[in-house]
Amino acid sequence: MAAAAAAAEGPDPGSVALEVASVSVNYGQFVAVESATFSVGAGECVAVIGPNGHGKSSMVTAVAGLVRRGGTVRVFGTALPVGDPRAAVRAGLVLVPERRHLYPQLTTRDNIMLGSYSHTRRVWARQAWAEVAGVLDMFPELAPLLDQKAGTLSGGQQQMVALARGMAARPKILMLDEPCLGLAEVVTHRVYDWLGAMTATDMTIVLVEENPVHALRVCHRAVRMYRGLVEQPAGEAGPDGPGPDGPGPDGPGAVSA
Questions:
Q1: Cβ(90)–Cβ(105) under 8 Å?
Q2: Which CATH number fits the domain that encloses residue 180?
Q3: pTM reported for the whole predicted model
Q4: What average pLDDT does range 154-160 have in this prediction?
Q5: Residue 206: its pLDDT value, please?
Q6: How many domains is the chain partitioned into structurally?
Q7: Which of 79, 208, 213, 233 is packed most tightly, with the most Cβ within 10 A?
Q8: Is 48 in contact with 222 (CB distance < 8 Å)?
């Protein structure tokens, strides 16, 4: 499948791709993430679910190195430095952020190519595009829009550009933060069809999603984030050891698909 070819070489089956251990995020005096601990196996698709405003976006942003954090993040056993997104990308961890964050004055083609910058920055633009053009196999609707400015695209088209940009980076671990936020239902189905296809490859996926019904359509399991906390379900060991005895009626927990 072309989508699988766009990613980096597959990980060893059974290995742990991502370990998040006691990660915390503060914005001044405000505690956005009190403690997040979970792990994701290689090739696994895990959803992070929970209400809005409970730290999901802050957590994945910190894991990607875009904000400072406490705790430890390991990618295939290697600890990532705090606040260094370049190290995360070099390790193969890529975040597609909430609300897309495209450059509106750049073309669709240029926005996609920015995803490949870490491995194409020393080659001519024509060659660089040739190396990443395969991402259009996932979203052929973008082919006639390559020379159109991203700011003139619809919300659904912009989300496809953001996903294609993430794939152009050849991720081993792809984190998606609310990829369908604000999109029409028909576009949401299109994105989730793509996600379903991705789960059949060896890519590791972390999906932040408020709606557990959508998330569990494609993910192998989910962890729940509540009031800045992610906890393991009863009997499951996290990166730092056994999980708690289980969630209370309103507390965090985990579910399986």
A1: no
A2: 3.40.50.300
A3: 0.79
A4: 88
A5: 96
A6: 1
A7: 208
A8: yes
